[in-house]
Write a structure and sequence with these properties.
Eight copies of one chain form a homooctamer.
Chain A lengths: L1 E4 L5 E5 L3 H5 L3 E4 L5 H14 L3 E4 L3 H10 L4 E3 L4 E4 L10 E6 L5 H13 L3 E6 L6 H5 L2 H6 L2 E6 L5 H6 L6 E5 L11 H8 L6 E3 L5 H11 L4
Parallel strand pairs in A: 3-4, 7-8, 7-9, 9-10, 10-11
Antiparallel strand pairs in A: 1-2, 4-6, 5-6
Helix pairs in contact in A: 2-3, 4-9
Chain lengths: 224, 224, 224, 224, 224, 224, 224, 224
């Protein structure tokens, strides 16, 4: 454990640097809910220990605080992710395929994609494969069947993961997104659809949780 | 208006016998929530006025009370529907197609089918066309495209209406069912899926409301 | 299918240009949730293919991005809709009537109206016909009975569609709006009212979904 | 205060016999949730103090326990109400009108009617005045306008109170009922409709709370 | 009926000017959800017909639009209410007492108070009478017992109406407010408390609906 | 740890016999959800280890299974509790007072009372102290102020804990009960009221969780 | 596809016999919601095609209908599962470990265990490893770390999956159960806990969905 | 009681200055929902009576209004708390330990810590002790077991209080926080987890209610 303290000595966080050893995956810092100052303090501690880390849901201000300490960190502003060191490890294990139902689901899909890569998997992204035009899904059957695990990101009716799961042998990690309005209830409709999928083989994570989906996919596709 | 009273003169219901003239469709009596005695009183009033009527959500006891008064009524116990007179009118207007996602959705689909027929439409039923095996949907494309309106009945993830709507020009009447468990929440998950359908052209009715779906389909497919 | 890519080649969307042929209705682009840049890229692809399209829920920034590419597009800022080409097709099929319960429901009603027109129907709008003064509804009975389908837009108690449906033979497309406060729950109260309508013949769409209602009405009123 | 104890001396209830003096209305005993034995003990205490009382939501077993102690009590099994002494007081104050939207709402309407009478008001009941056929409401306009307060009992869409309130000067006490299925959610849909009534002048009570509605109406129509 | 149109002739609203005659109470315009321009158009129509009106939930911009047309209107910015003509009618009927549980409930309480006055009742306000210090309630017993109807405004636990109702013979109009945080759920907790009041005689209106409460109270306290 | 196995060796439960040492309070077995056979196997293991235990939410069948193994166990059928050994330990620490708002809350209050006693506290019970008649609460002020901790059990509006907490220095453990109907939502209304108590000093436990309340009270009143 | 029809030729189900080939896993028949007759018809079709199948959530009556047709089927009445042919395939791929938090979660855990085995994995079960006594979890660390995937079954607070996920490198499939009462809301509390797990690597399935969890685990642990 | 009035004499609040005597703890003013002017008026009244007070959830503007009147007040901007007089009383009673699961929970934890201190207890804070790395909890066992009461503050899965309660004899006050996103539902997920804790001894307060938790802890740890 490493304690981060702010300038006057108040503890900010107890980093779980042991996690990489214990679980085999690096620590991640959820920036949302923390002040940029707190994130900067944490980044400093990490630099001192040289530990591989992801920063997720980072606003522009969070990102500035991280980059001030770790100027060579990788930064994807479209999905609020930073990674340090900037280069992902050499890919190992099975292929991860990330599929986004619509353009609006892109940031969450990108967070999943980049997380899987920085956790050591080879990963690709396909966008705009909604079920309103099934030929778009069916046209990707070869790609879908070549993956060890498929992350499917969808908002609104959230029906894509069930359709995909019915077509392949691999497990599907389903990420509901808050895309939609009215009775989409900020992603709840999509979440419920995924939990009630007619097709077995659908693993659900929290709404908009691209990081969690990428992490889970990396674990599922881990080398034996 | 015709007032039904029970034996001691307490009014039971004011039947809207004018409805057929005003709206063009017969009255329907929702039996659930009424006592068999009340349903029997209503049946007696109807017989006196000779008005075409459906009885919906009738338990075995409700059915006995109706059949005691209208012994030639048509009775479909699998979906709790009775119709009087027993023969549907000569079909007119466009074709209604009813599609059920699973075997458990059968009673609701049957209620929709029979309602549409007794309101004067030609109607057919296809069962077990879930999205977990897309080939089952795609194998029915010709049937789907031949209908003036399609009623799609589905529980659990409720994703079938969106898939169907994306394949056809006709409007889809979507009926969520209470089939499922856990986070299906008695049909709420399917209801939300349908309300958030990516594909436009999906008209949603209440959970398990086969009668309402059949009625709406009959109106949509009405002769000009 | 046509792939839209942003300047560095990342795919933005796979447009379903086949949709007009397959379903008989043009594609629509939901702008909310997309960046203006993404909407601009999509507009460019559409221009290249000459495909009739609607842009819905477009902010001022989205509209600017569309108009930069399609300067002659029709733009209705009050309901965030753009249409290209700007002129709707020659009207065919039955009459669509859009009825708004209150002034606050106007934008959603306008979205339904314009959608129905740009999908090829003749359509009119009546506003402020709430049930708190029934004479306002009853005074419009001739207009209501002349339509092939009626779109009823209402927030707060959402009771107007049931009242209208009880007066006419045509199907009613009910659109709950987020008008209201407190236990209106952003349109949920109106949505539930509509799903539980005592009068059959009410087809419900998502909260504030004027586009979906207009599309559904256009399908219902389609020429045989 | 009067303490009721069961045979071994454990206290069962502290009756608020002072209530009639303090509030001007008699005590009521909600039987649901109590054992028949407890209800019997309470009835005994009441007999000893000679206090006017209502027993509400009494099952057949509860009723037997009350009638064993107070054999001359008035009993209305259709709505689970008992009253003692059996005769209501001489009516005073304004007229209470109870209106039920459908036959299934009858028990709740009866509970309101009888409560108002046993609290000293003159009260009448009209049944089956749903909004699906507006002529049924409009045909009762004179009755509606003659009342000092109107109790409107409705399930499903719960739209009747708003329609009535828009037609009269008197306050409306709205009682949602659990009549309905699916998205009626046991009366929640009707409750929300009533809370969001477009027409002001609607006082809402709990789902199925006929007693509360009758009590409130009696207070509103109390003689000055 | 009077139709308001915006400058290019699009209808904005159909004012229910008949309402004062039909119901005995003036029209009210809910400004929230309308543009200031629409509110200005409505104010102009009203001025032409000389009809007494309230404007509720008016922002500063709404108020400016009303005052530009009706410069002598009464304006209470603390609760967003305007009234025209500015002077309330001569009070008649019983006394209305408005009680607010806390300082944060003040705006809603003021809206109720002013509404009751502009609908022709004599009305007073007591603030900060929460149940955390019962002596504050009990110290006001004489005021409470002197009223024909009591409006009780409370957020958070919403328990005050039940406590007050247990102390008086008059009906209580309970207004839940959105005061509170966390599991107060924007007033839902207080709403449920009030609907489940142990003490009968509690009439509930929508969350933050001071206008509705004042209107209902004016009806209850109306002169016979 | 002690493993309980069923006759064919399948493990049934791993009892946390260490808990008394680690936490200072005995183990409790929640019977609901277990088969009587499983409960019997657990009772046998306990007898072998001689460990003090409570059995909660035991049906008559569960109780029979326990008593077959531990025939001298204390059994309170009114609240489904069994305790072994039957005698509670000698009381120590501060006084626990349990207050029930209504007769229907009695079983939950009894569960709290007996739990506190069998965990070594002196505890008393007061019933039917609802807020609809405040004099019932105020008449008990001396008892309330003499306790080290007060458990308040209430359903419906759940307002009693806030009223009590405003009158005393001691912490209040609030137990919402599922007493009530309609918008009581099985205790949710009371739960929310308690979580939003205006008066600080209210500790909330799960709906109907008399055991948890009694346990928490015993911990709060523990001897220093 | 194989069509099952009931004796009069009405289609009952279209079995997806192609699924084993397409997805690599056998078909499963959810018995809940089907009549025993329908299940019997399906079993007959399966026997004719010789396809490996699971029957889930089978009541005693469902089981009798299956065993009448497939008398050698494996039947586990404790979790309502039947499998045919009775012997699972030779295990391949990684180890599946199923962990149940409490005795009441046993049936769901067993369904997961047996599903994984009948889908070709080696699988074991550990019961009663709740977090109220952490030593029970920590004492199983070696078992936990030896698995390729861990299914964690928990009701009430649903906290066990997060604790386990924090200790291991393998992915965790979390199954919320409906064990609990009050604010457990039939498994919703546990479901939300699992979706919000602090520790990444938690894949959530529907409440009580042991079958889905076992299927997902089998896919994750599939041989490369 | 002391009445605060604003400059024109309108009453702002009735301060419960008697509370310290009656309950033994000072008054607290919840600033959120009040205007800075109202808070300033209240501060003036307090200064006149010299009463110890806390101001909670004070924005920068609220704080300025308080400090203008009470310039020596203690101000902790990180959690929006002010206290006057600035020095807490001499500590008495048992030790309070506040534990925060994550950095984002820090403000709520600080509010609990400072409240406990200003109510006269000795109190300490430990941060970032989440269950994703159990060693962080287990490493603090001595601190945890030394406290008379432990306040545990946690968002997201909210599982920490149950884990802590399983390790100690002292009662745990659990504070859910709104930390998290998606299905965290603003703290509802954590709230439900805590209410359903497997381990007894968990007292739950409202979401983000650090003040309430600190107050309750001070009462629990009060000197006998």
């Amino acid at each position: 454990m490493a304690e981060s303290t702010d300038p006057d000595g108040t503890p900010v966080a107890e980093l779980d640097l042991d996690r990489a050893r214990r679980r085999g995956y690096p620590e991640a810092v959820l920036c949302a809910g923390k002040t940029p100052e707190q994130v900067g303090v944490i980044a400093t501690t990490l630099r001192e220990h040289g530990a591989r880390t992801l920063f997720t849901r980072a606003s522009a201000e969070h990102a500035r605080a991280v980059l001030a300490v770790l100027p060579d960190a990788f930064h994807a502003p479209d999905c609020g992710l930073l990674a340090w060191p900037p280069e992902p490890p050499e890919p190992a294990g099975g292929r991860v395929l990330v599929v986004a139902a619509g353009t609006s689901d892109h940031p969450v899909a990108r967070e999943a994609l980049l997380t899987a890569r920085h956790l050591g998997r080879s990963a690709d992204l396909i966008v705009d494969v909604g079920i309103a035009g099934l030929h778009r899904v069916l046209g990707r059957l070869d790609d879908l069947r070549a993956a060890r695990v498929i992350v499917v990101v969808a908002g609104m009716d959230g029906a894509l993961p069930a359709v995909v799961a019915g077509l392949v042998a691999a497990p599907v990690v389903a990420v509901p997104t808050s895309t939609g309005y009215g009775a989409a209830f900020g992603g709840v409709a999509a979440l419920l659809t995924m939990l009630n999928s007619c097709a077995p083989g659908v693993a659900v994570v929290n709404i908009d949780n691209g990081y969690g989906a990428g992490h889970l996919a990396a674990q599922i596709a881990a080398p034996s």
